[in-house]
Amino acid sequence: MSRAAQLRARIAAGLAHAMSAHNPLSARLAEEAGFDAIWASGFELSAAYGVPDASLLSYGQHLEMTRAMAEQTALPVIADLDTGYGNAVNVMHVVGAYERAGVAAVVIEDKRFPKDTSLLAGGRQELVGTEEFTGKIAAALSVRRDAGFVVIARTEALIAGLGQGEALARARAYAAAGADLVLVHSKQRTPDEVMAFIAAWDGPVPLALVPTLYPDLDEARMRATGKVGLVIYGNHAIRAAVTAMQAVFRRIRAEGGIAGADRDIVAVEEIFRLQRVAEMKAAERRFIP
Question: Last residue of a domain, which of 219, 235, 251?
Answer without folding.
Answer: 235
